[in-house]
UniProtKB/TrEMBL annotation:
Domain DDH: 20-170
Classification lineage: Bacteria, Candidatus Wildermuthiibacteriota
Protein name: Uncharacterized protein
GO molecular function terms listed in the Swiss-Prot or TrEMBL record: exonuclease activity; nucleic acid binding
Annotated coiled-coil segments of the chain: none
Residue stretches making up the DHHA1 domain: 297-376
Length: 381
């Protein structure tokens, strides 16, 4: 894969020279598992990981943010190794470079016409990519990079743990279960009930999931890991999956289970609210939102609605003069291309064809809806 060896060589050099490395990831399970895979690999090889950063989507926005760079500039010069984001952060990556950072991206989102000016980009969706399979989650790419870094130095126990994480992130990000992903999922789940990782053992030790129920209940485990539970700017999934203590892991997994029930009901409330606002059922898409919605739940709500009504749903949280949106669509629709046709109305956008996101000025919502309707009228699934 393009730049995979180049990225591995640069990280190896950083490890040898004890350069400072910052791991930066998205807050969803794909981003979290990507960061942990890279962190455990780099630390295992003696690397100097000085910070782990996950941006608060509601407060900072998605991706590499100016808020993050202000917080991290005290570590410069350093490597920022960003996973599951960054491919659309053109301005912020130039700012990071100006601050003295060496920027590396491990991302799987659609390339928006041009590439940002990161020093090294591992993304199978680059135009010049020759690797046959492109449907990796970011954690799958992090796994490939880690295996390249470890070579013969990786123990069977470490490798098993990395595959478990990559399997969870790949399933959570709903990537196609084909080709390379089949191997990642199979190897990650086949002995998950015998995991060494305290955070995963906690699911079995508390009786939340019976060992015999894997992989049938993997969806329930992922739902709990995706619950919003931030402490010290670290997502609950990160804290659980990196936990060294069985006791603290069992306590946290019970908290996540309780919050998962609340999350499920809150998602249902959003779905019912959106259904109550739907007037024109003949429209090729739905654009709807409100100020009271919790942004991190919009993707799950949009997913339920798009499956039910067989059309794209663009849901947003209104925050004064701006709105943050999450998009889901049935297979066959390309929501990134749709937003590309309306990009002059947007602040930022990006993601995958069936699952993406956007930021927009509130005043542009009506024009955005008309622009999307025009696109989807001529571009059916």
């Amino acid at each position: 894969m393009k730049n995979l060896l180049k990225a591995a060589k640069r990280i190896k050099l950083a490890i040898e020279k004890k350069e400072k490395i910052i791991l930066y990831g998205d807050t969803d399970l794909d981003g979290v598992t990507s960061v942990i895979i890279l962190e455990e690999t780099i630390k295992n090889l003696g690397g100097n990981v000085v910070a782990v950063y996950f941006p608060d989507r509601e407060k900072e926005g998605y991706g590499i943010t100016e808020t993050a760079l202000k917080s991290l500039k005290k570590f410069s010069p350093a490597i920022i190794l960003a996973a599951d984001l960054g491919i659309s952060n053109f301005k912020e990556i130039e700012q990071a470079r100006a601050l003295g950072f060496f920027v590396m991206l491990v991302d799987h989102h659609e390339v928006l016409g041009k590439l940002p000016k990161a020093h090294i980009i591992v993304n199978p969706r680059q135009k010049s990519e020759t690797y046959a399979f492109r449907e990796f989650a970011a954690c799958g790419l992090a796994l490939l990079l880690s295996l390249k870094l470890l070579g013969k130095k990786g123990s069977d126990l470490l490798t098993k743990g990395l595959y478990e994480l990559a399997a969870l992130g790949t399933i959570a990000d709903v990537m196609p279960r084909e080709k390379d992903n089949i191997g990642i999922i199979k190897q990650g789940l086949e002995n998950l009930h015998e995991t060494w990782r305290p955070g995963l053992k906690a699911f079995f030790e508390t009786g939340i999931i019976a060992p015999s129920d894997v992989p049938g209940k993997i969806g329930s485990m992922i739902a709990m890991l995706n619950v919003r539970d931030e402490s010290h700017k670290l997502p609950g999934a990160y804290r659980l999956l990196t936990s060294k203590s069985g006791e603290s892991a069992r306590e946290l997994v019970k908290v996540l289970e309780e919050k998962s029930e609340v999350r499920r009901q809150n998602i249902r409330d959003i779905v019912e609210s959106i259904e109550g606002k739907m007037r024109d059922l003949s429209s090729p898409l739905v654009l709807a939102g409100g100020a009271s919605f919790e942004y991190v739940l919009l993707g799950a709500a949009a997913s339920i609605l798009s499956k039910e009504y067989k059309k794209p749903f663009f849901l947003y949280k209104k925050k004064g003069e701006e709105c943050l949106g999450s998009v889901r669509a049935p297979r066959g629709y390309d929501t990134v291309e749709a937003m590309k046709s309306c990009k002059d109305l947007l602040i930022t956008y990006g993601g995958h064809p069936p699952a993406s996101g956007f930021r927009i000025k509130t005043k542009n919502l009506k024009d955005f809806e008309e622009c999307l309707a025009k696109y989807f009228t001529t571009h059916h699934a």
